[in-house]
């Protein structure tokens, strides 16, 4: 008998929850860093 478990599924790609967490993290980092970057631009 061949067993199929979580490990086999994990190799194929990312789950929706993982992708949502990464997108949320990138959003938070953008909100924090963009205003500081724009403040330091020469006028």
TrEMBL record:
Transmembrane domains' residue ranges: 16-38
UniProt cross-references to PROSITE patterns, sorted A to Z: PROKAR_NTER_METHYL
Pfam families linked: N_methyl (PF07963)
Q: What is this protein called?
A: Prepilin-type N-terminal cleavage/methylation domain-containing protein
**InterPro entries for this protein:** N_methyl_site, Pilin-like
State the superkingdom: Bacteria
Keywords in alphabetical order, please.
Membrane, Transmembrane, Transmembrane helix
């Amino acid at each position: 008998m061949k067993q199929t478990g979580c490990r086999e599924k994990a190799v194929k790609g990312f789950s929706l929850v993982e992708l949502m967490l990464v997108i949320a993290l990138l959003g938070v980092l953008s909100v924090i860093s963009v205003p500081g970057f724009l403040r330091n631009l020469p006028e």
